[in-house]
Write a structure and sequence with these properties.
The protein is α/β, with parallel strands linked by helices. The protein is built from 19 helices and 14 strands.
């Protein structure tokens, strides 16, 4: 069964022949390779590109490496990358006629000097280059620096809820429960039974993500790394920082781990796209507060697998789902802080900070969003609305709830919409 990824396919189509290197990034197993080598490849064929003008090459494929006289086993043993000269010789042998050639290169960072090789292809009028990479440093460090602005990123996430529902056999209510529990990694979604899904997620974590982070970053103490991951998994959407996490280690694990080491591990998790952090933003003061931050998992199924599906907490899980959807749509997302000064029962002025779950920005657009699992009464609604009432600008303010309610605006212009309407229409924020 094929899961269509039209949202990302459209991004690639719009970028064809733009003179830049199209870089598809994202967590391992989110569907990058399938998007590039199947969905986009078929698009090229259907649009009239001859098959011999599409060159597909995966640098982590033993079969593809064999084509250029390389051995995956030998590369692993010698701890080196793929020989770029062998690869370039292979490409030269394939480019034999006139017309545009499309290079679809998977895990290109596994080739030595890949920056120089790709820069060389950019200088050729008959080459359009698309590549994938699984490490954020691959993009931020190498692409930006070495390509001098000639890298064009398409960041890919696991399946959105609408993509998930395109293959889910139940209704949207059952679908959201399943999605919040097992996530959107395509190979997991396509598994039939719950036990198979759980086993696949746990195997991915141990055999792919942890091993990859450990190996790539030369981590000395994998136990500490995994302990930190467990702590983050148990506290998604909570404010924290390396110093607070250090104290947790000291109290719970009797560990002497330093905040510097914890910061390094957090960076490793973010570099692998396993988690994302979001900063606090003072809405009134219009400035960022560096610490503490909130951390969200790019896939909730992976998070739940990490804690053996023992701590399924709906409120923060829903918040994580909303965060991922906003990021997938291309918004920059911060945690909003609204400083207020109020008099208490004794007439004393008390200063406090109210929180807006998400401040979302994209170009000239801005939305303030509260995630409210349920709004059972007016008191709860007043609690969610309160930070909005303290913001004196005209940007749209939205409460997203799991309650089954039609979208409506209150007397203060605050929009309430249910999470199903929000997730199933990529333009829901703009249209409602």
């Amino acid at each position: 069964m094929e899961i269509r990824r039209d949202f990302y396919l459209d991004k690639l189509i719009r970028r064809k022949n733009n003179g830049l290197i199209k870089v598809i990034t994202g967590i391992r197993r989110c569907g990058k390779s399938y998007l590039l080598n199947n969905i986009f490849y078929n698009h090229l064929l259907e649009s009239g590109v001859p098959a011999d003008h599409i060159i597909r090459f995966a640098f982590d494929s033993a079969d593809d490496l064999y084509l250029i006289g390389e051995s995956l086993i030998k590369i692993e043993k010698e701890k080196r990358g793929v020989d770029p000269e062998k690869f370039m010789a292979y490409i030269r042998s394939q480019v034999t006629t006139d017309g545009m050639y499309y290079l679809l290169l998977d895990e290109v960072q596994l080739m030595d000097c890949f920056e120089s090789v790709l820069n060389g292809y950019l200088r050729k009028d008959n080459m359009d280059v698309f590549v994938t990479g699984s490490n954020a440093k691959f993009l931020s460090k190498d692409i930006v620096t070495e390509f001098a602005g000639r890298g064009d990123e398409v960041h890919m996430y696991p399946l959105s809820f609408s993509e998930f529902m395109s293959v889910f056999k139940g209704d949207k209510y059952m679908g959201l429960s399943e999605y919040m529990l097992y996530g959107g990694i395509p190979l997991v979604v396509l598994r039939e039974s719950s036990s198979d899904k759980a086993a696949a997620l746990q195997n991915l974590f141990s055999e792919i993500y942890i091993r990859d982070i450990f190996k790539r970053n030369r981590i000395k103490n994998i136990g500490e790394l995994e302990d930190l991951l467990n702590i983050l998994s148990s506290a998604i959407g909570s404010l924290t920082n390396p110093e607070k996490l250090k104290n947790t280690f000291k109290t719970v694990k009797k560990s002497k781990i330093t905040s510097k080491t914890i910061k390094k591990y957090l960076d490793c998790f973010e570099d692998s796209f396993l988690i994302e952090s979001t900063q606090r933003y003072d809405i009134k003061g219009r400035n960022y507060i560096e610490t503490p931050r909130k951390y969200y998992f790019s896939d909730l199924g992976l998070r739940n697998a990490r804690i053996n599906f023992r701590q399924f907490e709906q409120t923060h899980s829903m918040e994580n789902v909303i965060y991922n959807e906003l990021r997938m749509r291309g918004y920059n997302v911060d945690v909003g802080v609204v400083p207020v000064a109020e008099r208490d029962a004794n007439g004393k002025i008390v200063r406090k900070q109210l929180e807006v779950d998400f401040v979302c920005n994209m170009g000239s657009l801005r939305y303030y969003i509260q995630s409210a699992y349920s709004l059972p009464d007016e008191a709860k609604r007043a609690q969610e609305v309160r930070p909005f009432r303290k913001i004196d600008d005209s940007f749209k303010k939205i409460i997203v709830t799991k309650d089954i309610v039609p979208a409506f605006y209150d007397e203060n212009g605050i929009l309430t919409m249910n999470i199903y309407d929000f997730l199933l229409d990529v333009d829901s924020l703009e249209k409602t």
